[in-house]
Please model this.
Amino acid sequence: EFVHGLDYKFALPWIHKVTTRFKWGDRDTRDDVERSVDYDYGYFRYHIKTDHNISAKVKTDIKFRFFKKNYITAAYDHKGYYIFNGWDYDFFNDKTKRIWFNVDGEHKDVRYEDRLVSDYKKESVGLTASYQKKKNWKVSAGTKGNFYDYRATTKDKKRYYATLGGEKLFLEGRLTTILKLKYRHTSQDARNDTDYEAVRFAFRYRF
Model:
């Protein structure tokens, strides 16, 4: 794998930073997800991100990524792009606590060379609210919707997420415990609705 990129900061009020990345190489599907069949592929990705400090309380970033995969032994070659825009609003922030909100939206377009029925577009919108007691604990709650529009309309679906997460610091901040709860509801005309729940607990120790 090869990675090349550039970060540049501006002394301008309307643009703070630009980040670019080129990445290409060879991988296989085992690197992405667990599959019973292993497919090798070559890939290329280009990524650019701009950060903007609108005010002391409001910040936004815009991301664009182009991606392409060429499979060696399977007809899954595809390419596409996505555009992401996120907004952060600091409602309250002092030495002891912070309250902030994140709003984001994304458009994704994927095209397959030999499997045209798998072409799709995806629109996403999400909202997260967070409260932090600095040097002590943090809690966040969020919701998100993904809306898939396939060339084969029978595959169209909607996915809704609800998340709740928290972090707690111990040992003067060296130990962090993390708890995340996730719920997902999938609605698809051609199939029965499905629900999915997950719980994740982890810890991080800083030496």
Summary: The chain is about 0% helix and 70% strand. The chain has a mean pLDDT of 92.
